[in-house]
Design brief:
Radius of gyration: 27 Å
Strand content: 15-25%
Number of domains: 2
CATH topology of the largest domain: TATA-Binding Protein
Order of helices and strands: HHHEEEHEEEEHE
Number of helices: 5
Helix content: 40-55%
Largest sheet: 6 strands, mixed
Strand order of the largest sheet: 2-1-7-6-5-4
């Protein structure tokens, strides 16, 4: 009887070791292997093709600044000179003592200098731009619309709107992009900003 109990206890202990050790390790190894295969497939296909398959074209199309509404989820950012937009803004921009066309040229330079922007508008409106920006590693696509508006006082207002194609949040990337562009405009030769405190 004692021998039978001892044999049963040994069998139970072995089963517990198997349940507690090997299957857990096998599951973790399986998950890691699956993740590795998925990552390899993602980069083999290419991030751009993958995101196009998942979410459609990277270019989200033009925004009509007169009628558009901000998103209900935190994956966009809006920067505007005072009075140029009726939507809540994240950044108040100055006006500029620069013509709308010259300001858009400086914006092109700022976008190009980022190394991650592609201009996607058709070029028919001299005071309008649309770009697709992509994140560094996974190339998440965001669309940025920009419009320069001449004012009666001879100055130019600017509106910048950046929005993500994927996800319900952007971890502040759209606002950071707008801030970087505004800083680059401030360093551009021939672009003169007027204080926002007037």
């Amino acid at each position: 009887m004692d021998d039978e109990l001892e044999t049963m206890e040994c069998s139970m202990a072995g089963l517990q070791r198997e349940r507690g050790g090997f299957p857990t390790r096998r599951i973790l190894l399986g998950v890691a292997a699956a993740a590795g295969v998925a990552a390899a497939g993602f980069f083999a296909i290419g991030p751009r093709r993958f995101w196009r398959f998942v979410a459609g074209p990277a270019d989200q199309g033009p925004v009509d600044f007169a009628t558009f509404s901000r998103r209900s989820v935190p994956n966009d950012a809006l920067a505007s000179s005072k009075g140029a937009s009726t939507q809540p803004v994240d950044l108040i921009l100055p006006t500029y003592r620069t013509s709308p066309i010259a300001l858009m040229g400086a914006l092109d330079d700022a976008a190009r200098s980022s190394g991650r922007a592609e201009r996607v508008d058709d070029g028919t409106e001299p005071a309008y731009r649309r770009y697709v920006f992509r994140s560094r590693v996974f190339e998440f696509p965001d669309t940025l619309d920009a419009r320069a508006v001449g004012r009666p006082d001879g100055e130019t207002s600017l509106i910048l709107y950046s929005r993500s194609q994927l996800g319900r949040g952007d971890f502040g990337s759209n606002r950071a992009r707008l801030e970087a562009i505004v800083r680059a405009l401030g360093r551009s030769p021939g672009v003169e900003a007027v204080s926002t405190r007037r």
